[in-house]
Amino acid sequence: xxFQMGRSVRVATALSVLFLLVLGARPAVSQPPNQRTTxxxxxxxxxxxxxxxNEGSKKFGAGDWGVSLENLLDPESCEKVGQxxxxxxxxxxxxxxxxxxxxxxxxxxxxxxxxxxxxxxxSEFGAEDGADLPVIGGTGAYQDATGTxxxxxxxxxxxxxxxxxxxxxxxx
Length: 172
Fold this sequence. Notes:
By secondary structure, the chain is mainly beta. 11% of the residues lie in helices and 54% in strands. It has one helix at 7-25, and strands spanning 35-44, 49-53, 65-73, 80-94, 98-109, 112-121, 131-138, 146-157, 160-171. It has a nine-stranded antiparallel sheet with strand order 1-9-8-7-6-5-4-3-2, with no helix packed on it.
């Protein structure tokens, strides 16, 4: 006697085949791929506003912090294109001229804001390939952006010394 399929198995198989046929016949609904974009700005060493707060002894130590407001320039035209609002919190000294920090900041550009947040050593900012800080979000044209901001110090642009900030972004 051969194998006989029960009624419920036949119905389930027929429904599964019908489901697959209907699913396959539907037009594909695709979301647009994420868009990659790169933005580079120049942060000259001339800071319009900066304040450092020493929370303890005369030495720089844990809990000390600083805030600054930086002008951001287009590296080609040297025109102001935005501002950076930054906060550094000092965590622990390492040697005489270095230490661990927490950094958070916002680049305010004409079409939106880009937020970064990271921790590391101050010396990373002077590295030849720069310091990478994660982008944690944004607004406007940069809504929900992810990616990195690479800071390259000791750059000379627009007849000034400063840092280039390169945002490598993935946008939804």
